[in-house]
Fold DNA double-strand break repair protein Mre11.
Amino acid sequence: MIHTGDTHVGYRQYHSPERRQDFLDAFEAVVDDAVEQRSTGSRTESDDAVDALVHAGDLFHDRRPDLPDLLGVLSALRRLDAADVPFLAIVGNHEATRGSQWLDLFENLGLATRLGAEPTVVGDTAFYGLDHVPRSRRDDLDYDFASPPDDVGATALVAHGLFTPFAHADWDTEELLDAASVDFDAVLLGDNHVPDTAQVEGTWVTYCGSTERASADERDARGYNLVEFGPDASGDATVDIRRRSLDTRPFAFVDVELAEGEGVERVRERVREHDLSDAVAVVTITGDGDPVTPAAIEDAAVEAGALLARVTDHRAVGGDTVDDVPAVDFADPDAAVRERVREMDLSSLGRRLDETVRDDAVADSNVRERVASAVGDAVADDALDGLSTVDGGDAEDSDDADKQSVDDGRATDTEPETDVEADTDADEQVSMEDYL
């Protein structure tokens, strides 16, 4: 089967409509591969056809996708359905709505299966699902999954989150596997855009990575996993995980270290050394050279054929800054903000909230949940002791305010009561029904 995820359909990266289309094109390329491999049986040397396409969350970049993105996904899912390739998926943090999910709509149309605590059997493998759950609500999870049928040869859990032993982890894989009522042979993950694989307590755990570059840090080729389940000589389940790359829009990474006396002309020379045809040019400047105007470099890259260019001069954010570089570079306002935040001497919680609010990788509609989670963690750790409270007395604790309900293995948040009337801003979380 194909294991993909973090397709982020609808992401208008760099405010570019072409980049938005790129994310849909990448998802469609995965679907095309599944359909082709289903019909030709070209996936393995034994000519086995692909049996399913498994999506590990963040199909959409936002919980309120635009109509062209919805129609594009629907068209791709119909191609899968016509080729008899099941689409098995879970809900990621970017796309989650209050109430019914977009994945539920696709399931009602007969185009998808939303994985949960009950097994979904394809061939001789049982698949289970665990939607993204905010960190502050994970203590309520019991990881109770229904037993697989007796004739199943392997079991796999599809989950969305940042799991150990991989980078940026905040979810303990060993604890999950120990607590789970099913002995999983593999855990197929989404959320971390870097593909990687490890073994945890004898279970294969793997990230498929994103299908498009959602940030300039994602330099390696994009792709997905090919996962094969089968018995070994003794009849025990085996898992074979391989990578397949996708042909996505090229990124040209131009790293320039300026020597003393070098400036904009040297950066332009380095830019012209790359093939920028329809590429996203990512230019990074360090060193001791003269000040460089990012707009001049961006113009040069576009003239050389680039779709667009992004220039980051690290000397303007506290690195090797030359004396005559101004403290604020208006071509990079985020750098100025980061510098000001450092001067404010914020607490660790304050810095975490600041990073959450300004993180481009966090959808606007997810900011409130992330902030609430961070504050909830601080309260649980008594990190707010000694801070003054607003007038009106101490807030009463509510045992029900933070409960996590699990229905068929699918996480749904119980909205806490609040004294503040719900804001009706466009970025508020809405139900899918209200959106439609």
The chain has three domains: 2-245, 251-343, 346-385.
